[in-house]
Amino acid sequence: GSVDIAVMEHASNTSREVATSIISVPPRRDGWKHADLLESPSSTKRLFLMFDINKNGFIEIEELKTVLKSLKLFPTTPMLREIFAEVDFKGDGVIDFEEFYHMRQTGLRCEFNVVAEFKKFAIDRLFRGVITRDCVVKILQLEGFAGDELDRLVGEFMLADVDGDGKITYRDLYERLMERVPDEWLTWVAENLQRGVPPALVVEILEQNGFRIELANSIVRATKENGKQSMKRNYTDQCSSYIYTIKS
Questions:
Q1: Is 27 helix (H, G, I), strand (E, B) or coil?
Q2: Helices (H) and strands (E) in the chain — how many of each?
Q3: Has this prediction a pTM greater than 0.85?
Q4: Distances in Å between the alpha carbon of 133 and those of 4, 27, 158, 221, 241?
Q5: Residue 78 CB coordination number (10 Å)
Q6: Nearest to 139 by CA among 106, 160, 110, 117
Q7: Per-residue pLDDT tens for 46-93?
């Protein structure tokens, strides 16, 4: 596993006591790069029309609310406005295709883009409300991917299926794209730092397990200064599970 590799790599530079005191990490968090999945303008347009319900050429906040409701997501009114405003770059109260296209092509890390990504891939009529491997294959084939490249991208995308049941829920995708830090990882960081594991080693193991170096440093720094990070529920709570975020 990745933990054993990390321990072995550092054993020569770390005391036996520290190396053996590292707690096994939670499930690995490998991710995929949005640049690999850039969609064609025509695909972006089709996706835009899923939100432009009244077909007036703009996405209005009530239309976003309707789409979220179809996913059984019910953010508060202030949160809904915040989600919308992140893409309403012009600040005119509507999202036009130019703004939507910019969000998609740049891979903007925002909640609206998670909704769009989920709507794009959740096309299975049998398993409603989740993304299956077949969904990912079909969509990427439409984007022109094939052969080894298709297999690689599908495999990377399915890493979002954290429980390995073959289905990606909205929560799974949200956690992946928004870089939400699962509670078990924050506990792991806190417990290892308390055991005296060097912060640099904790950061490196986090990075080896899919965390960006900047995020890994932020988690470790916040934990050193304030202890294990406090959590809060997010609107994506779907009764059976929660999304956790670090409180700023």
A1: coil
A2: 13, 4
A3: no
A4: 29, 20, 7, 37, 22
A5: 8
A6: 117
A7: 999 999 999 999 999 999 999 999 888 888 899 999 999 999 999 999
